[in-house]
Amino acid sequence: MPAIEMEAVVFDMDGVLIDSEVIWRQVRTEFCAENGMCWSAADQESTMGCNTAMWSRIMVQRLQLRARLGMDEAAIAREIKARLLSKYQARLPEREGAIAAVQRVATRYKVALASGSPNDIAAHVMRVTGLDRVFLAATYGDDVAQGKPAPDIYLDVLRKIGVAPQHALGVEDSGNGIRSLHAAGMGIIAAPGPEFALTDELLALADGCIGSMTELSLDMVRDIGHRRAGRLRSRTPG
């Protein structure tokens, strides 16, 4: 069986391209503190990678927002998005080496974005970073019915660029994102940030792991294709 030739690399945004998971946690924590509630690390982790419909539902349920504040999913989504965009407009927290990594990978492979962020937030980040001129396609959280960990968002963006899942890999920092890639049948590079560690179980699903986006290289992408081909070969009856 020949080596699997990688054709595309799909990037997550929050936590991969920008250090935004900390900002998401901050705005939710501030909202809760202002209203006599608590937002825990476990609460935050449950929302990572989710689209707006999912994380707003999680917030309403976990914080009992209907009973406490009379807020439904649409109301909390508007509140959190407004707070987040305000912070992004003040300072966009780019992850070190991330923009250069996308540009580097784009010299050899198709690159695309699969972000669970709301469409308007993700589009703002793409414009500010200039990555809207680098990515061939993007699918945002509001574009799909099911967010991560379902595979929909990755399968949708791969359809847009005409690449089969076995010929693509994704770069993800969260458990929901890694599960989404695994369900899509793609290669996986785990890129966890210092704030949210990944379990050994999640790391075992990944084909590679990097501590910094500066470590993402063209050789790594190529080698993952070779290793995935080797595993498929070993599973094929002789």
UniProtKB/TrEMBL annotation:
<dbReference type="Pfam" id="PF00702">
    <property type="entry name" value="Hydrolase"/>
</dbReference>
<keyword id="KW-0378">Hydrolase</keyword>
<dbReference type="InterPro" id="IPR023198">
    <property type="entry name" value="PGP-like_dom2"/>
</dbReference>
<protein>
    <submittedName>
        <fullName>HAD-superfamily hydrolase, subfamily IA, variant 3</fullName>
    </submittedName>
</protein>
<dbReference type="InterPro" id="IPR006439">
    <property type="entry name" value="HAD-SF_hydro_IA"/>
</dbReference>
<dbReference type="GO" id="GO:0016787">
    <property type="term" value="F:hydrolase activity"/>
</dbReference>
<dbReference type="InterPro" id="IPR023214">
    <property type="entry name" value="HAD_sf"/>
</dbReference>
<dbReference type="InterPro" id="IPR036412">
    <property type="entry name" value="HAD-like_sf"/>
</dbReference>
